Amino acid sequence: xxxxxxxxxxxxxxxxxxxxxxxxxxxxxxxxxxxxxxxxxxxxxxxxxxxxxxxxxxxxxxxxxxxxxxxxxxxxxxxxxxxxxxxxxxxxxxxxxxxxxxxxxxxxxxxxxxxxxxxxxxxxxxxxxxxxxxxxxx
Length: 138
Fold this sequence. Notes:
Largest sheet: 6 strands, antiparallel
Strand content: 15-25%
Radius of gyration: 15 Å
Number of helices: 4
Structural class: alpha+beta
Oligomer: single chain
Order of helices and strands: HEEEEHEEHH
Low-confidence stretches: none
Helix content: 25-40%
């Protein structure tokens, strides 16, 4: 059994990107992440916001959305569409963007391919499971 205090300490230090894999963006060449303060979207991680576990947990379904029954390409209610992913996970799979694809060639970016989307969702599910285990301060 995992020590609740250890989970809380680990989450206090962690930072997360909010990954957005909505079905209508599946054809994009790079994965979309949220900018700081929920202010739009970006491909480059250098432009993405880093969110605390506290903010993610307080935001609930705003930061963690699963597919709806109407999302034909997804498994209804199962597939993560928008979710937190540890910064180090996204950064480990990121690469420099192709020249000219982003203003100033800003990067790095995470390519939108099946392997990366699976890895990001796996990491997102693990984060959400940890957040659910975190002791409440009630």
